[in-house]
Amino acid sequence: MKSIDLEGLMPHMSTINASGADRPVVRVKELSERDRRRLLMHFLALDDSDRLLRFGTVLPDELITRYVQKLDFSRDTVFGVYDDNLRLLGVGHLAFTARETSTVLHNATLKARIAEFGVSVSANARGMGIGSRLFERAAIRCRNEDVDTLYMHCLSSNQTMIHIAAKAGMKIHREYGEADAYLKLQPASPGTMLAEAMEEQFATFDYGFKANTKAALKWWNRLPGRKGK
Ligand SMILES: CC(C)(COP(=O)(O)OP(=O)(O)OC[C@H]1O[C@@H](n2cnc3c(N)ncnc32)[C@H](O)[C@@H]1OP(=O)(O)O)[C@@H](O)C(=O)NCCC(=O)NCCS
Questions:
Q1: Domains and CATH numbers, the chain
Q2: How far is the CA of 1 from the centre of ligand 1 (A)?
Q3: What's the confidence (pLDDT) of residue 24?
């Protein structure tokens, strides 16, 4: 039977990295309540140095658990990248806050809100473009939400994030000191609106495909006579 190359129909920014190496297509999906347990497993697997980079402090397991329990999916946006078993390989948390509430960055923009972004990728899934795709998706959401200022913990010292931001064509601003570096984003365009809508459609399709495949395999392995094979 002839197979259909769905990847060829899917929009994607790039599957090639800066050094020219081929990479698998990464789909970024918006997460919801049903992902809370997977989120917890993803964050608990981060080691101390990753927790420091991600949260600005080495959060113990209890505080990570509380952080995940308190995630408000109706207020904030959480993006994720799943593997074939629907485990989360990467997570990006985008939170919008009123400009006046930021003690430092309230002068950085005239827009009503600024955004804070935190991202993490499982240690065994790094260097595959997942962090870049989560970052690009968050930046597009900000632009579509009329937000032009994106803050991240540890941005000034995090060489990987600096590289990812530069690759996306963003300049790092440090007017308010090294500790409060932030990124400036372009305004929205019809292209950014379409890009976000299409990416979510394809990510939803990808999730459904993985979920169905997983369920079918489970069913298959439970068939009489298949035990232990
Ligand atoms: C930062 C992080 C999210 C990146 O995730 P990732 O999936 O590995 O990122 P990508 O694969 O998309 O891209 C990494 C890029 O950085 C480059 N890079 C890796 N280490 C680097 C370093 N020390 N200095 C500069 N660039 C570096 C890679 O070569 C790659 O570039 P390329 O795409 O041009 O080849 C991941 O390392 C992580 O979870 N770190 C711990 C938490 C953290 O630092 N979060 C950010 C602050 S909130």
A1: 27-202 (3.40.630.30)
A2: 40
A3: 85
